[in-house]
């Protein structure tokens, strides 16, 4: 491959996830990146094209040491940025109570205090980077200015972020609501325009943030508002995010107040499209899932917050079998952890418990029935490639494909020089002098018990982000 414009070369072990059920470990590969942060070369280091690139370019390769590997960064498909303010509290309540007593108050507080908003969002960006999250789909607040602070903060931090200004003309909190459907639609249009303006002067490859229309969920949006947002999404080809069929009390509220199911309300207003990401979808039956698949809508699966608020587990295996695009989300603060590794682990745990229940309920029946459990490799795919596909971010996003943005996290699991595992990881055979080449068992061990001590690098669009240790205030 022509090396014109090569800005960075990286040589080492890469873990790729070409499909839901596949995980490949590519040892001693060479990757090239151009000035725009796109991958220009990816091949075995001993291939003719790699050898030619190594000898023809003056750029020295970054050598990833033995016992380490590069992996696509995580994509968090559902996170409430202002709720980071009170992460890890209030989870004893039902969903509708929790929104009243915690969520709305916190969001209103940030809307009233721009300095606090920037402080909270700056810290959030740092925590995302620490946890290996390179791409995130964010719910914001009602006020335009606060959401522009959120967009600016993510852009400055180097995190790829889709930012949603909340649209809600109905609220149980009188001081936290938009005046009317017309006012909410005007505000949504204004935010979309101004969010785009914040990065308009940058080269296209440097624009990391974009707006997304965000009707909070059916209980906070009139039909008039939803219809208007559907028209706006179609007019400007905008992504849409919301919550659908999340919790029993929420589903019953929609039935009693609207006389319909969530999915019907969204679908009838043009908000169930290939550009839509709906969080949760816990209470959808087979027919509804078929409609989601037919519309091309993606789902953000948030297993931890589902455990607290949904009263039922998400039918992940069945949803995947229906052909629906699925990614994982932390759902902070409905979920208490920003760590996508926690989301992956909970997704597997919930699915295994569903499978155990299925086997107990159907003991002695068709044992050849497909398991509803997922394994760790599938969860890793959903947390990386799956999220990028759900967002429709373009060619190769979430992979190491030529032409794709170079997004990666570097994971160190073993220190060959010291002969010891990193962090919580122990490899007793390697300590006796065996080869520290990365194996599938080593990656699985990291997936199960690894933590932030194993993450030593993060790149987004070719830029290496600072994995700083947070001490004191910004």
UniProtKB/TrEMBL annotation:
Keyword entries, A-Z: Hydrolase, Metal-binding, Zinc
GO molecular function, one term: guanine deaminase activity
GO BP annotation list: guanine metabolic process
Record-linked SUPFAM superfamilies: Metallo-dependent hydrolases
Cofactor: Zn(2+)
Keyword Cell membrane: no
Record-level GO cellular component terms: cytosol
One Pfam family this sequence matches: Amidohydro_1
Domain of life: Eukaryota
UniProt domain Amidohydrolase-related: residue ranges: 69-410
Entry-linked PANTHER family: GUANINE DEAMINASE (PTHR11271:SF6)
Protein name: Amidohydrolase family protein
Source organism (scientific name): Lyophyllum shimeji (Hon-shimeji)
